[in-house]
Amino acid sequence: MTDILDNLRKEYQAVPIPEELDLIVNRSIKQALQTRRVKRLKVKGLTVAAAILVFLIAINASTTVANAFAAIPGVDRIIKVLTLKEFKVADPNYDASIKVPAITNMENKELQLGLNKKYLAENKALYDQFQAEIEELKKQGLNEAHIGVDAGYEVKTDNDTIFSISRYVTQIAASSSMEMQFDTIDKKNQILISLPMLFKDDQYVQVISENIISQMKEQMKGDEGKIYWIAGEANDIPMEEAFSTIKKDQSFYINNDGKLVIVFNKYEVAPGYMGPIEFIIPTYRIAGDLVSHNYIK
Known about the structure:
Layout: H1 2-14, H2 21-32, H3 48-56, H4 63-71, E1 81-90, E2 94-103, H5 109-139, E3 147-158, E4 162-172, E5 176-186, E6 191-193, H6 203-222, E7 252-254, E8 260-264, E9 277-281, H7 283-286
Helix pairs in contact: 2-5
């Protein structure tokens, strides 16, 4: 079984991938609007049970994936995400665990492979950077310095319409930082969803920003432990660093309830002890600005 899995990975890595993901996404949108035949992978010489076992060896054994496996009948939808590769460093002073996700079982193979190529490139660069930092510390004679990096992924949403995966990177030195990225896929049309494409025009930026500020103020009233850096309020940080508006391409995902969730990285809008911040945007606040209610309910 191990040899078969290794061969499958080699075949995947040998597939030529366009260098620009934007090109892949644009082409995938056009492709998704055309009639496509469903292509099924056939593993010669293996029973169905054995073929499933080959893939299960590589699946990340997280609670999310385990629950999805138990809840979804049949073979075709079992595989959602597997760990393609893990970069590790295990040392008393240096610790790295970098898991590379790979999305599987999409009909749009070009988009699937484009995303997976991106994930591999991002995490390989992260590993190389970590190794370079270790070498630099050693050159400076800082052999007792402690640094670490933990990177992985989590399936945030998996229903009949939406598949959303988050990737996180936590870096530890004197303090820790955490960054998150999200990819949200329309499962029916097999396209990558961006925040702007959900709305009729740019008005959503102001509408969502105003709602988030309102939520921030309400949360601070009800909990003294919560602090947000809001522009125009009394803050201990420069005004230009205080929150006033989201970016047009602000990090987001759509949850299993069909609600838009806006995400900020650690330190982006609040002190570090609050970690990454999420705000669920009430649908009635943005209903008039949505292109449709296919995704947001």
